[in-house]
Amino acid sequence: MRLLDRIWPLDVVIDPMTPDHAHRMSELHRLTFSRPWTDGEFSDLLAQKTVFGFVARELRRGKAQVLGFVLVREAAGEAEILTITVAPEWQGRGLGRKLMDSVLAKAHGERIEAIFLEVDETNQPALSLYRKLGFFQVGGRPDYYRDRLGRASAALVMRRDLG
Ligand SMILES: CC(C)(COP(=O)(O)OP(=O)(O)OC[C@H]1O[C@@H](n2cnc3c(N)ncnc32)[C@H](O)[C@@H]1OP(=O)(O)O)[C@@H](O)C(=O)NCCC(=O)NCCS
């Protein structure tokens, strides 16, 4: 890995998501979640006017591979992060942060008052990212998730206010 790439990969851009991204989104989801969503589920979500998202794309070598994405639903002045994921080999290189920054910037622009999300209490990378961005816990759902071995964990409900 190039030294600069550890700080921010130069050939990665953040773009608004389009319905064309549905297949790649389900591929990435399958790599990172024990209960992945299908192409059809992503297509259905993207067809909704209240749903938007961003993709991180690598432009190197003439390709435009999607490396990560975030999907958001907006309603009545609030927004919910539906899902966010980064390809395993690209995690820890700033893409998740950039994707969330894009959501926060759009939310500010649209005068959204608060953003909510749910996160597995055992998901330390995600919890750390959200806390750094100003999200705080406002609730929880015990025994909400099951991992691949059937172990249960709670969902934490988090909120970020936008002033
Ligand atoms: C959570 C996820 C989206 C974060 O994306 P990422 O690109 O890896 O994160 P970044 O490189 O932008 O890191 C941002 C912050 O997240 C935290 N973080 C990232 N990876 C971490 C790790 N392995 N351990 C602890 N904290 C971590 C850190 O606070 C980091 O800030 P820092 O670089 O200043 O230390 C990514 O790990 C992922 O796709 N995980 C699998 C899917 C998932 O769990 N999604 C969230 C469901 S709620």
TrEMBL record:
Signal peptide bounds: none
Pfam families xref list: Acetyltransf_1
Keyword flag Transcription regulation: no
Taxonomy, superkingdom: Bacteria
InterPro entries per UniProt: AcTrfase_RimI/Ard1, Acyl_CoA_acyltransferase, GNAT_dom, YpeA/RimI_acetyltransf
PROSITE patterns: GNAT
Domain N-acetyltransferase: start-end pairs: 12-163
Keywords: Acyltransferase, Cytoplasm, Transferase
SUPFAM superfamilies on file: Acyl-CoA N-acyltransferases (Nat)
Gene Ontology MF annotations: N-acetyltransferase activity
Family listed: Belongs to the acetyltransferase family. RimI subfamily.
Name recorded for this polypeptide: Ribosomal-protein-alanine N-acetyltransferase
Organism annotation: Oricola cellulosilytica
